[in-house]
Amino acid sequence: MRTTHVQIVMASHVNGAKRLFGGKLMEWIDVTAAVEARRHACCDVTLAAVDPLEFIAPVKMNDTVVLEAEVTWTGNTSLEVRVDTFVEHLNMHKQHVNRAYLVFVAVDENNIPQPVKAYIPQTALEHKEYDNAALRRAFRLRLRKEAEALQELARKLKEQELPPQDSEALLDIARQSDNKSCQE
Predict the structure, then answer these.
(1) pTM for the whole thing?
(2) 77, 81, 92, 136: which sits with the fewest CB atoms below 10 Å from its CB?
(3) Which of the four CATH numbers 3.40.50.880, 3.10.129.10, 3.30.450.40, 3.40.50.2300 does domain 1-119 have?
């Protein structure tokens, strides 16, 4: 299934340079992706992660923006949705301006994660996207682990009350943390 959202960029959507606020596009991406995720999961969803966004080209006031969302991968209770954003010019030419990947978790009325039906890719492109989703998931998990290690390092530094400029002590603690995480 594909979910499409179309929007004309109005004055309230733009900054002083008459370009679309990035945050407004992020809002539209979130809503479009959530609708696609809800349709696939057949229940409510909650946003768990958004991959980094790259704004490829500007979107200007009075542009027609088209967002197209599709499920690309499912886990047990989570699903990844890709949203492609285009500016549709008056001559009907579409210009790609953004691609986003969002991860949702299906939940019941008590916010308990719920199983989702498996996404089964059909085309060669869908199979490639599905395979790439596994790489993106591994990358997200690695980033999460790195962020947790950084938090732990910050906690240790605070406990030892090391001055921030004591880089050798910082590196020693980081090495110790890395060695411990590799042994686990």
Answers:
(1) 0.81
(2) 92
(3) 3.10.129.10
